[in-house]
């Protein structure tokens, strides 16, 4: 048995090595695909090692439960992962993240209901993992429902923060009683019910535009909860993997909040971020349209074109046609670059993944800081379905809710072509001043259809 335990521990550390290598390789687009395979291999090693874990290999019931759970999870993940559209990827991440938090909460529940003579520190960690994992579970489900359009609007009323604060303090008090006085099943049940409700109440007031940040935060919560439960079970793989997920999620949350020039507390407790909920500013002038032929002429005879992809490109699945258009322009000696805002789309890296899928070379894709100074020298900037991340009010209107948020300097280009289906405001509900500028023209239509027409016209010049 000692040899088996040693082999299990060695396997877990091998899995952790594979996780870390996978994460490192995911940091660059060129190696991201192989990084996923490295991390996947680590997950396989960790899963197989678990079957030999003490208390599993010699317990038929536990063995059967793990086999059934692994089989069901694998089938569901494989089938849903194959079918999910790229535009629905944030929803899938929210849902899967919630499952991780729920699993950590379930481990805590088993240990707390079971009671026993756990060391005091283990009881405290079990309670902390339970509340964090449970909040992540219910909160992530609400985030998924908001992103998927199943829950519309927000829940806000006077005194909401006070109610949530009292609920959180009550949950902590119950957790402390359980940890130090070993409360009975009724107290444990009340503890988890309150934690579930708190996760819901914490997420319902947050607008849909802020859901990506919330998902990232709950991802960090899930990792932290898993690490705590790893200590409870004495499982090094859970401790290290949970710590990695928690730290990565925390860093990503901070980076996303910085990209919007907002604090995490502002995201969680302010009233900003609801799609369609902002006040549209009044601008002089009107939105001026352009036809496909004129837009194609501008781009075909330009020296430099910068393309700014957004959620509209993802919805239309236009990335392949956009890359085809770029190839046509490059044949005409036009310099073409892509500009990516950190929060473009519905999750970090959303646009990068779409462009990589279409085969766009990494060396013509630039982040905001790398390309923002080049818009002033661009003959044409083409915006495809992006909105808030190119809104000039973030730079020049102190009264705007997004004032101070770093945006792409699209307005500085000589000509701006905005591909958009209609004249609606952005996901935050704020009207875009860019649409009314003298150098801007609206090219209405589905992004894929527009790109196809641009290709046909550009080839003629």
Instruction: Estimate nothing, just give the exact number of structural domains.
Output: 2
End-to-end CA span? 76 Å
Task: Report the count of strand segments.
Answer: 6
Helix content percent band: 55-70%
Give the biggest sheet: 6 strands, parallel
Mean pLDDT over the full residue set: 87
Order of helices and strands: HHHHHHHHHHHEHHEHEHEHEEH
Parts with pLDDT < 50 across at least 5 consecutive residues: 273-280
Roughly what fraction of the amino acids lie in strands? 5-15%
Architecture overview:
This protein is α/β, with parallel strands linked by helices and 461 residues long. The protein is built from 17 helices and 6 strands. It has 2 domains: 268 residues, no CATH class; 167 residues, TPP-binding domain (Rossmann fold). The protein has a 6-stranded parallel β-sheet with strand order 3-2-1-4-5-6.
Descriptors for this entry?
461 residues, alpha/beta, Rossmann fold, 17 helices
Quick structural overview:
This protein is α/β, with parallel strands linked by helices and 461 residues long.
Break the fold down into its secondary structure elements and pairings.
Elements: H1 2-25, H2 32-50, H3 60-83, H4 89-114, H5 120-147, H6 160-181, H7 185-203, H8 211-233, H9 236-259, H10 264-269, H11 292-300, E1 304-309, H12 311-316, H13 319-331, E2 335-340, H14 350-358, E3 365-367, H15 368-371, E4 380-384, H16 393-396, E5 415-420, E6 440-444, H17 447-458
Parallel strand pairs: 1-2, 1-4, 2-3, 4-5, 5-6
Helix pairs in contact: 1-2, 1-9, 4-5, 4-8, 5-6, 5-7, 5-8, 6-7, 8-9, 11-17, 13-14, 13-17
């Amino acid at each position: 048995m000692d040899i088996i335990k040693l082999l299990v521990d060695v396997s877990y550390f091998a899995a952790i090595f594979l996780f870390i290598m996978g994460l490192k390789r995911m940091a660059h687009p060129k190696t991201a695909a192989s990084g996923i395979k490295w991390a996947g291999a680590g997950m396989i090693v960790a899963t197989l090692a678990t079957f030999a874990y003490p208390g599993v290999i010699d317990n038929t019931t536990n063995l059967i439960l793990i086999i059934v759970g692994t089989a069901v999870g694998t089938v569901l993940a494989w089938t849903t992962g194959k079918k999910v559209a790229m535009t629905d990827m944030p929803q899938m991440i929210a849902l899967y993240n919630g499952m991780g938090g729920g699993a950590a909460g379930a481990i805590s529940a088993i240990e707390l209901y079971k009671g026993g003579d756990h060391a005091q520190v283990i009881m405290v960690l079990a309670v902390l993992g339970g509340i964090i994992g449970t909040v992540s579970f219910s909160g992530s489900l609400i985030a998924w429902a908001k992103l998927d359009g199943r829950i519309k609007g927000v829940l806000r009323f006077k005194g909401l923060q006070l109610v949530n604060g009292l609920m959180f303090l009550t949950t902590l008090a119950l957790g402390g009683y359980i940890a130090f006085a070993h409360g009975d099943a009724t107290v444990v049940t009340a503890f988890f019910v309150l934690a579930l409700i708190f996760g819901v109440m914490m997420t319902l007031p947050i607008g849909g535009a802020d859901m990506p940040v919330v998902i990232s935060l709950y991802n960090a919560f899930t990792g932290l909860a898993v690490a705590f439960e790893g200590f409870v079970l004495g499982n090094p793989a859970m401790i290290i993997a949970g710590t990695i997920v928690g730290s990565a999620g925390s860093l990503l949350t901070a980076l996303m909040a910085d990209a919007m020039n907002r604090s995490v507390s502002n995201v969680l407790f302010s009233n900003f971020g609801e799609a369609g909920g902002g006040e549209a500013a009044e601008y002089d002038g009107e939105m001026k349209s352009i036809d496909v032929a004129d837009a194609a002429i501008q781009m075909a005879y330009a020296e430099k074109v910068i393309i700014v992809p957004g959620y509209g490109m993802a919805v239309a699945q236009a990335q392949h046609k956009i890359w085809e258009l770029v190839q046509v322009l490059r044949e005409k000696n036009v310099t073409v670059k892509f500009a990516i805002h950190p929060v473009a789309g519905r999750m970090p890296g959303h646009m990068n993944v779409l462009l990589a899928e279409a085969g766009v070379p990494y060396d013509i894709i630039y982040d905001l800081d790398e390309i923002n100074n080049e818009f002033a020298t661009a003959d044409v900037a083409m915006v495809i379905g992006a909105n808030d991340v190119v809104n000039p009010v973030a730079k020049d209107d102190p009264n705007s809710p997004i004032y101070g948020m770093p945006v792409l300097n699209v307005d500085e280009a000589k000509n701006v072509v905005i591909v958009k289906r209609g004249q609606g405001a952005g996901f935050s509900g704020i009207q875009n001043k860019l649409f009314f500028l003298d150098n801007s023209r609206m090219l209405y239509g589905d992004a894929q259809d527009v790109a196809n027409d641009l290709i046909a016209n550009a080839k003629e010049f």
